[in-house]
Amino acid sequence: MDIKYNRKSKENLPVVAICYDFDKTLSPDDMQAQGYIQSVGYDVAQFWKDTNDLAEQNDMDVNLAYMFKMVQEAEGKLIFNKDKLAEYGSKVKVFPGVETWFERIREYGRQKGVIVEHYIISSGLKEMIEGTAMADSFTRIYANSFFYNEKGIAQWPAFVVNYTNKTQFLFRIEKGVLDINDPGVNEFYKPEDLRVPFRNMVYIGDSDTDIPCMRLVNSLGGHSIGVYDPGTGDKTKVYKMIRDNRIKFFAAADYNEGTEIDELVKAIIDRTAVNEKLEAEHIKSVEETRANS
Q1: C-alpha 45 chain-centroid distance
Q2: What letters, b where the CB count within 10 A reaches 16 and e where it falls short, cover 56-68?
Q3: What gap in Å lies between CA 277 and CA 12, rounded to an integer?
Q4: Could you tell me the end-to-end alpha-carbon distance of the chain, in angstroms, rounded to an integer?
Q5: 293 pLDDT above the threshold of 90
Q6: Is residue 240 part of a domain?
Q7: CA distance 264 to 146
Q8: Which of 90, 115, 96, 103 is CA-nearest to residue 36?
C-alpha cells in the first residue's frame, strides 16, 4: 500500500532553517547524565565507559550501546516508558537565554520578511527532548528514540541518529521531505524548487559529532557555528574546528538577546533577506530566457 506523506512546499517568503545539536549545544551536559544515570545507581563516567566498551567489544554503534544499557539498567528499578523519559527531560538544564531564544529569533525573522524554523538533529533521546519546555519550538526533532511494547515500556531502539547519518536530515529539510520514512528525499528538485536551499541553513553544534553536518552546510553555502560553554570559557574545540575549516564562526552558548550568537544569527537572517531578493531576480531572468529560447 502506498503511503502518502505530508511534505512542506516552497514558501512565498525565504525560509531559514536553524539546526541544533542538543547536548552541550543547548544544554551544558549530556541529557542522560542529568537524572537518569544517577537514578539507576550508576556513576556517570562509569556509565559512558561501560557503554563505549560494549560498543567496542561488539562492533556496535555507540548510540545503540547506550540505549541498550539504559533499558538494561532500568529493569527492576523504574518504569522505563515515555512518561518517565519526558520527566527526565523536563529537568534538563539549558544554557542562558535558551528559553526565550526560539521565539525571539522567529520574531526577528518575521520583521525581516524571513520564515525562521528550528530543528534538532541530535544523538540524544527524542523522548527526553520532547519533555523539555522548548519542545514545541522545533519544527522537527530528529533524535534517537525507542520502540515500546503493548504496555508502553521501552524495548528496543526504534531510530538512531549518529554523526554520519545526521546529514540526511539536512537534505530532508532542504526539500521539505521531513518524515524519516519518506523516500522522496531521493527525488530530484530543481534548485528554484528547493524549500530551504543550503545557503539558508545554519548548523549550530559543539563537537566532532557535528562535523559532517557542519562541513556539508559550509560546502553548499550555508553557515556553521561552533559553540562553547560560557561557564568554562574553554574554546579548545572551536579553535580546532576553525583551524580544520569545519565552522565559519564560533560563539559562547549564551542565547540571551544582544550576545555574540544572537547578533550573529540575526546578521545571517539579514543577509538571507537581501540575498533571496537577488536569487528571485536571477530565477526570473532564467525563466524568461527559457520561455524565449
Answers
A1: 25
A2: eeeeeebbbbbbb
A3: 12
A4: 43
A5: no
A6: yes
A7: 36
A8: 90
- CATH code: domain of residue 147: 3.40.50.1000
Scanning the chain, the segments in alpha helix (DSSP H) are 36-39, 44-57, 62-74, 82-90, 98-111, 126-129, 167-175, 211-219, 236-243, 260-291
Cell numbers for 83, please give them.
Answer: 512518561
Q: Contacts for 68-76 with beta carbons within 8 Å, 24 or more apart?
A: 68/157, 70/32, 70/36, 70/154, 71/146, 71/154, 71/155, 71/156, 73/40, 73/42, 73/47, 74/40, 74/154
> Would you say residue 50 lies in a domain?
no
Mean pLDDT, the chain, integer: 95
DSSP 210-265: GHHHHHHHHHTT-EEEEEE-TTT---HHHHHHHHTT--SEEEES--STTSHHHHHH
Residue 167: helix, strand or coil by DSSP?
A: helix
From the centroid of its chain, how far is CA 292?
43
The count of structural domains within the chain is 1
Indicate whether 287 belongs to any domain: yes
Torsion of CA 153, 154, 156, 161, to 10 degrees: 150
62 is a domain residue: no
- What residue type is assigned to position 251 of the chain? A
- Residues near 22 by beta carbon (within 8 Å), at least 6 away in sequence: 31, 120, 122, 124, 129, 143
- Computed from CA positions of residues 112, 114, 117, 121, in that sequence, does the dihedral angle turn out positive or negative? negative
Q: Is the pLDDT of residue 1 over 80?
A: no
* pLDDT, position 288: 86
243 lies in which domain range?
15-29+94-291
Task: Note the pLDDT tens digit of each residue in 151-179.
Answer: 999 999 999 999 889 999 999 999 999 99
Residue 287, amino acid: E
On the CB side of 173, CA atoms within 13 Å amount to 32
Cell of 31: 541529557
